[in-house]
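2024-03-11 09:14:02 INFO receiving multi-entity request
2024-03-11 09:14:02 INFO entity count = two
2024-03-11 09:14:03 INFO echoing inputs for audit
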Amino acid sequence: MKVLVAIKGVPDYSGPVRVLPDGSSVDISSLRKVINPFDEIAVEEAVRLKEKGQVSEIIALTIGLGTAQEILRTALAMGADRGVLIETDQEIQPLAAAAVLAQYAMRETVQLCFLGKQAVDTDNNQTGQMMAGFLGWSQGTFASKVVLNEKGVEVTREIDGGLETVQLVFPAVITTDLRLNQPRYLSLPNIVQAKRKPIDVQPLTALGLDVAARLKTLKVSVPEKKRRSQRVESAAELVACLRRDRVIE
Amino acid sequence: MKILLIAEHDNRIFKPVNAHLLSAARQLGGDIDILVAGQPEPSVIQSAGQYAGVRQVLTAADPVYEHLLPENLSQLIASLANEYDYVMMPATTFGKNILPRTAALLNVAMVSDVMQIVSPDSFNRPVFAGNAMATVQISEKVKLLTVRATAFSAEAAISETAPIKTLQKVFENTLSRFVRTEQQLSGRPELTAARIVVSGGRGFKSAENFKLLEQFADSLGAAVGASRAAVDAGFAPNDWQVGQTGKIVAPDLYIAIGISGAIQHLAGMKDAKVIVAINSDPDAPIFQVADYGLVGDLFQILPALQDALQQKVH
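2024-03-11 09:21:47 INFO inference complete, emitting structure
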């Protein structure tokens, strides 16, 4: 069974986020791109299934600039078999990303696709569900447990207030939540080996899809909230302050 | 203007989050229809009709929708959507599961996590873990939105009841099947709806010590939260996690104990009315977003706090 893993490069989330003075965007020029942490979990899950012998091939796909190959190398070093870069300098919004993924999944006849539940830059949480919608496939979002069985795949989902388990038939799209697994550290031999794995680069324009941005960002601002930042010296003083503010009795 | 809201419920309870969604819809203005799909008890349908501005309640009561699974619920919503200017769902795991799939069926873009309505076609939503707010404009004919409940007040129920229209639309689901749910039963208020949230971080040092936090929360009638670091360390279950990758809360009072204040965490709680930080490190970033900061050893402060809370108000 062939598995597709979609990954996105995001600005290093440990770095500072500053809004450009003209309010047009966020200044991320100084931040290096790293693999979206949820997508790293997606790669890890696919690799674990392959190690169990339940998956034959793992394809890692990303959309972006030529430099996005570095992100693919990370996935290859983790255990993906080959990489695909759909090259573009355009802003790709979730609907367009889902259309690209759906087309690729059909062409490669994959049975299972893993994506992170959201990217930590745009925080949309849409692409996996949209991809499943385009394809008419089953979907298991926010997965914290994935078990392949004779009927397809059983997915345990993190929902508000608990867990929900669903049985999906193949082909299926699964989006990953934090608790699904702990991605492995990359070993030097694996990093070296990953350099020899193939990456197929295709221009986005060759796919013939409508990938125009549908949403326009008018402005980006820093939300301001004034806090008192008052230091208190004791538990008793704190309780007195909170009573004065009428937030406790 | 016509708005379709998709009600969140578990077939027994019309969730409080719907009242917030209604208030967002009322800001947009126009006729509001509420879709109640599933196998709802009559009280759920009745609750949906008890809000000002609601023109009618649409019901799709059929066993195929019982567990509100995305594969066919999105088809049902898509079959109705073109009659509306807006289709809105709460930005909960329910809304986030269903609405993007519906958007693909309609081949339209959508806006997630609306926190403010700027104009009929532009909305504020948080990006980069809430470190920035983007104003986005959407030009689709039917606009699909998920709405952050904590950013909108709750609409009050009224005594009148909107008419009910029964839909005869049955979309079978051959792709997925519900197996089970495991609900956390704690007796505490739900994290995203609680008036007071008490959260713990790595400062607690062990899962055993985290029980002190639970006791403290119970003495306040508060919900219990945790930082991602505490969850990763195994001190607390994942569904207690507050932050960009966990729950977003905006209670009247948020008390962060032993939490350093990673950006990831701040994204989940910085809209609280009053924030208290308790940490042994005076330079912890959490103090910068707090209204009140108390520096010290949490294992000494927690009992002292409990004592102070028990003192009668003079």
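2024-03-11 09:21:48 INFO post-check: Helices of chain A lie at 37-51, 69-78, 94-107, 127-135, 188-194, 235-244.
2024-03-11 09:21:48 INFO post-check: Chain A touches chain B through 81 residues (CB under 8 Å).
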